[in-house]
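Support request, please re-run this one:
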Amino acid sequence: MYQVYPRSFADSNGDGTGDLAGVRSRLPYLAELGVDALWFNPWYPSPMADGGYDVADYRDIDPVFGTLAEAEKLISEALALGIRTIVDIVPNHVSAAHPWFREALAAGPGSPARERFWFRPGRGEHGELPPNNWPSQFGGPAWTRTTDPDGTPGDWFLNLFDSEQPDLNWSHPDVRAEHEDVLRFWFDRGAGGVRIDSAALVTKDPALPDLSDDPAAPHPYVDRDDLHDIYRGWRRIADSYPGARILVGEVWMPDAERLARYLRPDEMHTAFNFDFLACPWEPARLRTSIDTTLAAHQPVGAPATWVLCNHDVTRTVTRYGRADTGFGFAAKAFGIPTDPGVGTRRARAAALLTLALPGSVYLYQGEELGLPEVEDIPAERLQDPMYLRSGGTDPGRDGCRVPLPWAGAAPPFGFSPEGSAEPWLPQPADWADRTAEAQAADPGSMLALYRAALRLRRAARGPGDGPLTWLPSAPEVLAFRRTSSFLCVVNLGGAPAELPPHRDLLLASGPLPEGRLPQDTAVWLRSAP
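Re-run finished. Output below.
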């Protein structure tokens, strides 16, 4: 599954922003890479307060990306190449520009239009305090106060994310009916599935109680039991269409058993594995994450998913070059040193590890090029609300969203036609050797590694679709078998490791001096008969 962040993939018309025509022009590249499906971040009309996750209309395409007809062509052309399309749905909230929210603001306090959202009077003598203590995911309170027509302060509305993203009230029948109709709209146009954003945050305790300091207290808006009836309804819709139409959940859930409840046979097909994504480059932690993931999925019969990076987290090459190789939003900061050489070596090994595991893999655009996080974007160019709402202390997510380099020796590196407007985020001037064109000609490049691994993943001598069996190894080595003849070995230790008996070396993430496996290197082997 290849993740396309449309704004940064390819710009066909020279306005500095990626578009659907740009994606269509690069479909041969994606087919050659060997992907099975494209997951698109939101492409709908949006004021872009949060990179498109503030949706104003689910039944159209934002003009900056193209038209609905062009999206239909893209879905059809990709399918002709054997590539399915997954669209993004954001059920927790809409844009403040959505017709429903505009109607609610105009209708005033107590109106039926406001019941689709969470409007409440404030606390305090004059209603000057938010209705409860819930925090926004982007910093500050999760409430924004309205202004009445006469200019006086009015009620507050809930926004777990940005103030331009009012939360929907899922106890209202209109909200459920609307989203079910949106699913049918895109399935009717050939979409192969939907990715469900912030899937565990959608429903709220109607009493809107304060968050408790007691960890045993029920959470008022995370992982509530009433969520599951919503997704059972969505599954019934998906199953009513011919062929496979899948539901993929973004479910940040530290409890693997709770996560598995979303993957029961009548709910979602798969969910993102954030434990693996956030796991540091440490053998014991990685093995535990793999074992825990597979064990949680086994009882519900759902395939595991594996991902190293996405549009919200620090790019793998940069993260793996740091002293702390794990990921957590709270730990993000400016000025954290990284060793790009070490990070690249580990990212190459991690690619082979991930692609050898049982289940599906999500590959964020640019990871196949080994792109680093861009950490020197001028402050005046940063656009992410995480940065803006933090007062400039949180670097935000713009660094992993910089437009892709396709070809050439200088920006825009083929992202836009020559002579175009500057890309919406600036590209580093030293990316000439990271372009897809340059790497396609280099057999030792990250792109060549991913292409080779994806070809082998499909081949009869690849990992196949069976279970994982761990092999005896030193503590700093991960070694497992997938078929009777396919082995994956990864050395995370400081000393070279001996390779197990094997017939053929299928693929290596780096050189093997004297036939031994160096630090931060992975191999795929065909075992000896």
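The first strand starts at residue 2 and ends at 4. The radius of gyration is 24 Å.
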